[in-house]
Amino acid sequence: MGERQIDRRGFIKSTLLGVGGMVLSVPGLQQEVKAAEVKGKDRRFVYRVLGKTGLKIPVINMGVMLTDNPNLIRTALDSGITLLDTAHGYMGGRNE
Fold first, then answer.
1. Domains in the chain: how many in total?
2. Residue 78 resides in a domain
3. In this structure, are 2 and 35 located in the same domain?
4. pTM confidence score
5. How confident is the model at residue 53 (pLDDT cuts 50, 70, 90)?
């Protein structure tokens, strides 16, 4: 791809459009945060059956491939996360 040139007018226009979009999205973000807070208090998760095993696992889980902070794991567990995706090979065998 060639180098794209932009003039001053185009730069100002795209900057103002970007800032305008951010300003207009703030009320929507605030509503989403409030909805998440309400749902977070409920602490009910959606579960699905894993293949033919019959095991019910939550659709929300936490991948911990590069997680070396025990406080992060504790916080996830305290928040209701019950499925941590890990394997013996992660972090040289020190992840599990």
1. 2
2. yes
3. yes
4. 0.47
5. very high
